Predict the structure.
Amino acid sequence: MCGIVGYIGRKAAVPVLLEGLKRLEYRGYDSSGIAILTSADGELVVRKSPGKIATLEKLIAENQLPESTLGICHTRWATHGAPTSPNAHPHFDCSRKIVVVHNGIIENYESLKKDLEKKGHKFVSETDTEVVAHLVEEFYKGNLLQAVQKAIQKLAGAFALGVVAKDSPGEIVAARVGSPLIVGVGEKENFIASDVPAILDSTRKIIYLNDGEMVRLTKDQVEVFTFKGKKVFPKIHNVTFSIDAVQKQGFPHFMLKEIHEQPHVLEQMCQKRIKNGQVILDGLNLSMTQLKNVKRIFIVACGTAYHAGIVGKYIIEKLVGIAVNVEAASEFRYGSPVIDRKTLIIAISQSGETADTLAAVKEARSKGAKVVAICNVVGSSLTRESDGILY
């Protein structure tokens, strides 16, 4: 999963952006990059590299970035094109006046790229993302919000976008469909990010953008719109959880940290959830009547979470006597699962942002099933799509 962070405000942008990227390392990545709009002359400057964020920091130390209070940055998992510097985000348009970061997949990028090349656009990467920068360039007539709005009408697939333009120096425009994106509301500063932990040091006031929404940020204002231009007045959530869960706390990587955490976490869970011989599942949000009406259970997940689901199947069938199917979330939509209002979906995702698991959940809910998420990230997309949550 790619990671996006954007900042506009009064502080030096580069430290804020790099710290935000580090907070998103648990999502995994193979390259990283940063774009800033310089305070002195209003130029867009980019540094990017394959490898760890430490490699990007070294590159910046060797080739210092000018002062700036506005920027966007990105960590990438290679999808279209190898993990190389040209393929790392951010991506420019032809004029190098527009720069874009992107999480997701642009499914129709090949046809868009061919059309743009016929119009004279030159591409320098193998990515699907670069077409977005050129599309925005094609539509830009001095209004960045309108240019992005017109560009995204051409896109098919899933995306979260952050866009900055040299000729619109006081704003960041962002949009999302299918890929997570949140807005952080601060004092004389505002943020975008793929996930809440990236910006918790700076603000706990969060707007969760819905699919089909876009946002224009200045240092003093946050404006949210639908893709058709209708203004939205979103709820601002006050986040209270700790950021300890998304810090490596001395371990070289998150997998090792989580392996060592297991005994302590299990002990904590038992102490919290078993009291006076009763099991307490805060957040389940299903009544006893609803639970007794469940006739079939699907566990949907990917990767390691899928294997945890297989263990769960045997436990549930032994203790409850209800048939449990464990499905790879990536295949779930493409079969014909028998789902109705008496079906319970248990969706497992460490990050709460696994795209295939989210798609499976939406498919199941459209058929009337109840969904319980087992997840590790408060406020993630999966938790917002589910009826109940077990963190």
